[in-house]
Write a structure and sequence with these properties.
Blueprint (H helix, E strand, L loop, with lengths): L2 H9 L9 E5 L3 H13 L2 E6 L12 E4 L5 H9 L3 E4 L6 H7 L9 H8 L1 H11 L6 E4 L2 H10 L4 E4 L10 E4 L6 H5 L4 E4 L4 E11 L5 E3 L3 E6 L2 E7 L6 H18 L3 E11 L12 E9 L9 H4 L4 H9 L13 E8 L10 H7 L4 E4 L9 E9 L2 H15 L4
Parallel strand pairs: 1-2, 1-4, 2-3
Antiparallel strand pairs: 5-8, 6-7, 6-8, 9-10, 9-11, 9-13, 11-12, 12-15, 13-14, 15-17, 16-17
Helix pairs in contact: 2-11, 3-4, 4-5, 5-6, 12-13
């Protein structure tokens, strides 16, 4: 259906039946925040959720309990909507292909495969000429030991599928450390440890007609494998490096035919070349991970940009014109709330809101568990140090640390 037809459905009769219907597979916080963006646009969101009382089941009226690997449940969702999207990558290709016979799936399985499988992604990045760490497909301890020898004795071992927030990733010095993963069968990914200066993410949206819109490149900080802090725009990234990073992301989106949000996480390290005009070491980005759905590194856009990533994702999958990605203030800082000492972090609202009135709190309706992403805090402003201090202070209170 064309963008024009969707607009007519929204403003024509005003009936709920005429609203554009977007289906999303997954019931986590990303679908929850899609619902927040769908409401003002008059878009009807339908979700396949893991639990009725989960993050999304609590807030999306048109939700159905089911698993992402249940073909019947996914196809039933596809039959009820105009377009189907995902909030995580863990949907089998064959199920997405079957759903695609009933409604457009965006991103399609042909693109999502590269976010699902790290080995497939590494091969594709090299084919596209995108810089990546040195890597090997390994099936045995002997192959791992040979790779480690070329890497000087240490490397990063990853499971190709289903890893996130530090899961499925090990730093190893001996092949025997991979014995349990090898016993599960299938190849593993062994790659170089990049001595990076910092980590960044390039986030963009692309619609089926080819329009692309990029937000500023952001700096990300990981804590025990999970994203902890995001600063937009990325400090230390000048116009030349930002252009290089965004060019890589746009090329990936166009060559893979990504529709919706694409996040490209990268390491930035020295390339060993000549220093820049300022005398600083020349910097080189290396592609680390791809995500083809709204991403933690762009939560700041809810308060910090003209168009949030969640609204933009809905626009993109419906093939509607994309919104402006301009920042609203000089700086945006987002800090994740990873677990809490409090049974319910909302117990700290009085204290947090009194001390940090500029902090924007997003809680996901999740049960508190150690290191679990249960919410985030964003502070925007014109002073980076102040935004950092306030966002970290508010998040610490929600974690029960103050």
């Amino acid at each position: 259906m064309t963008a024009k037809a969707h607009v007519q459905r929204v403003v024509g009769t005003g009936a709920e039946e005429a609203a554009p219907r977007v289906g999303v597979v997954g019931g986590g916080q990303l679908a929850r925040m899609m619902q927040e963006a769908a409401i003002p646009l008059g878009i009807q969101l339908h979700a396949l959720v893991e639990a009725a009382d989960g993050a999304s089941g609590q807030v999306i009226p048109n939700s159905q309990v089911g698993d992402a690997d249940d073909s019947a449940a996914v196809c039933a969702l596809a039959e009820r909507v105009d377009v189907l999207t995902v909030e995580h990558e863990h949907v089998p290709d064959e199920i997405l292909a079957a759903a695609g016979e009933l409604a457009p799936v965006r991103p399609g399985s042909h693109a999502l495969a590269y976010a699902q499988d790290k080995l497939l992604m590494r091969e594709k990045m090299e084919e596209l000429g995108a810089p990546v760490p040195r890597w090997w497909r390994v099936n045995s301890e002997q192959e791992i030991q040979a790779g480690l020898a070329e890497l000087g004795g240490r490397g990063v071992l990853k499971t190709p599928r289903d890893g996130y927030d530090g899961k499925g990733v090990r730093i190893i010095a001996e092949a025997s450390e991979a014995r349990d993963w090898l016993a599960d069968g299938g190849p593993l990914l062994l790659e170089e440890m990049i001595p990076f200066e910092f980590e960044v993410a390039a986030v963009l949206a692309r619609r089926p007609s080819g329009e692309v819109a990029c937000w500023p490149v952001v700096r990300t900080v990981q804590q025990q494998g999970a994203c902890f802090e995001v600063v937009a725009p990325a400090p230390g990234v000048g116009p030349e490096l930002e252009g290089q990073i965004q060019d890589i992301a746009v090329k990936i989106a166009e060559d893979l035919d990504v529709v919706g949000i694409l996040a490209v996480e990268m390491f930035v390290g020295s390339n060993g070349g000549e220093a820049s005009a300022s005398g600083a070491p020349a910097l080189q980005p290396y592609v680390n991970e791809l995500a083809m759905r709204p991403h933690n590194s762009a939560h700041w856009t809810i308060e910090g940009a003209d168009t949030s990533q969640f609204e933009q994702h809905l626009r993109a999958v419906l093939d509607l014109p994309l919104g402006s990605t301009l920042p609203l203030r000089d700086w945006s800082v987002m800090v994740n709330v990873l677990g809490s000492e409090l049974d319910d972090p909302r117990e700290a609202y009085q204290q947090v809101m009194e001390k940090y009135p500029r902090a924007k709190i997003h809680m996901y309706g999740k049960e508190v568990k150690p290191r679990r992403k249960i919410g985030h805090v964003t502070v925007v402003g014109d002073d980076l140090d102040e935004a950092l201090a306030q966002s970290h202070g508010a998040a610490a209170m929600l974690r029960g640390e103050v």
